[in-house]
Write a structure and sequence with these properties.
By secondary structure, this protein is an alpha/beta fold. The protein has helices spanning 85-89, 92-107, 111-123, 170-181, 200-211, 229-238, 257-264, 270-276, 294-307, 315-321, 324-329, 359-363, 385-390, 415-428; strands spanning 10-17, 22-31, 34-39, 49-59, 61-62, 127-130, 144-145, 159-162, 187-192, 219-223, 252-255, 279-282, 347-351, 371-376, 379-383, 397-401, 404-408.
């Protein structure tokens, strides 16, 4: 779907967010769904369409931790903290407000509508790649659904996403081990150690994972709140000491601080993980208790970072966690996550900030109203009318997002119809459809 031919090359000019630096007055040249060139001095071929964005041009955000079909629900506020994820899943209030309404959506045949809504929601948060899709015919492929099909070309490993790795059948475990041993190596993203930092059940999961032989390169742990500093050191050692190398996808951590804090009162000891050399990505989890999307989680992570006595991360570190680091964890660092030649043309444009702050800071403090364009595989899918028109986007419909009229060009029926059908079904269960965006973080 994404890597489609463009009639002619297009060059975007603005402030480039690169892995190591920010380039003012830079250019990104795109054609045939790929980035052809980027930097301060780019030679443009004849016939190139040039667009001065007057904004920040960054790689699309990569979400390695989500549960997309559940993002139709509004924020869930349980009014208590839990020991681990098994606690809140067993609560009657969760059954009433989440499990039963979600089952009703499936029974009504609206699971594909839920997936469509969630993928558009991800796009409005600057996400170009996601995980946690509903497998099968409901996957919409509006974003890159990495755990279903990266659509980035042949010869790439799989991305396996598992919520309950300790319950994997012998057959599933054997399949995962074979994929992790293959060349190119696949990646396994697993939820583990989700709970309060000293919860005994959550802490025990790390030893159980070791016993299953899954503490090995290619595996990344989602949450990891109950992992000790010694555990992070063991994770780093399992990556053969190369977890920070672009050529390695050793054992890593996918960090979701907002959902952790709201459910368990604390988050993973990422300072210890960083000190051990564990590779860290940042992702929002899901809308009910996490962030609506990756822009929201960048904001939350930046705020959390500022509250620490010694902030473990720079604003650049946080941006890398949502882009280049995430790509490395799933062995796609040669395909997505950076504005470098040869990568897929997955690009977002954000409104420039004011004051003396750099582009990394602006990215960690942007909200949906600051998102001006989302391009996936060289195709403009969402943004303001001026930039969408400059990209030649066709068949766009208008969405009201945070008080602004935005253009959405994903094809198919009107998005308003998807919203109406989901909202009507949820009302039968005493619920309502979550807003597409949370504004002004």
């Amino acid at each position: 779907m994404f890597l489609r031919a463009q009639e002619k090359p297009i060059a975007f000019m603005g402030t480039l967010v690169m892995p190591e630096t920010v380039i003012e007055g830079g250019t990104v040249l795109m054609q045939d769904g790929r980035i052809v060139a980027s930097g301060a001095h780019v030679t443009l071929p004849a016939g190139t369409r040039v667009v001065d964005t007057d904004g920040i041009i960054a790689p699309g955000l990569i979400d390695l931790h989500n549960h997309l079909s559940w993002n139709i629900f509004p924020r869930w506020k349980p009014m208590e903290e839990f020991g681990n994820r098994y606690d809140w899943q067993a609560k009657p209030v969760y059954n009433i407000q989440m499990t039963v309404p979600h089952a009703l959506i499936v029974e009504e045949g609206l699971e594909c509508e839920a997936e469509r809504y969630a993928e558009v929601k991800a796009i409005t948060e600057g996400e170009t790649s996601v995980t946690g899709s509903m497998h099968g015919p409901c996957v919409q492929h509006l974003t890159r659904n990495l755990d279903v099909d990266p659509e980035l070309g042949p010869g790439l490993g799989k991305v396996i996403y598992d919520v309950f790795p300790l319950q994997m059948s012998p057959e599933a475990l054997a399949g995962a081990e074979a994929a992790l041993s293959a060349r190119p190596r696949s990646s396994l993203l697993i939820h583990l150690g989700e709970g309060a930092p000293h919860d005994a059940a959550a802490m025990r999961e790390f030893a159980m994972l070791r016993g299953r032989g899954l503490l090995r390169p290619g595996v990344s742990l989602i949450h990891g709140v109950a992992i000790t500093p010694e555990g992070f050191a063991e994770m780093a050692a399992a990556g053969v000491g190369l977890v920070w190398s672009p050529r390695s996808n050793g054992v890593g951590l996918v960090w979701s601080p907002r959902s952790n804090v709201e459910l368990y009162g604390d988050t993973a000891n990422v300072a210890a993980a960083k000190a051990a050399g564990v590779h860290i990505a940042l992702a929002p989890d899901w809308s009910p208790t996490g962030s609506v999307g990756s822009l929201g989680e960048l904001n939350y992570a930046s705020l959390w970072n500022q509250t620490q006595a010694t902030p473990p991360f720079s604003e650049r570190d946080l941006v890398m966690m949502a882009t280049a680091n995430a790509a490395e964890l799933v062995n796609l660092s040669g395909q997505i996550g950076s504005l470098v030649p040869g990568h897929a043309a997955d690009v977002i444009v954000l409104r420039k900030g004011t004051g003396a702050h750099d582009a990394y800071w602006t990215m960690t403090h942007s909200s949906p109203e600051d998102l001006e364009l989302v391009v996936i595989g060289g195709r403009a899918l969402y943004g303001n009318a001026a930039l969408m028109e400059s990209f030649g986007a066709a068949s766009a419909e208008t969405l009201q997002v945070c008080g602004a009229a935005e253009q959405l060009a994903v094809g198919g029926k009107a998005f308003a119809d998807t919203e109406t059908r989901l909202d009507g079904a949820l009302h039968l269960a005493g619920r309502f459809l979550a807003p597409l965006a949370e504004c002004g973080y």
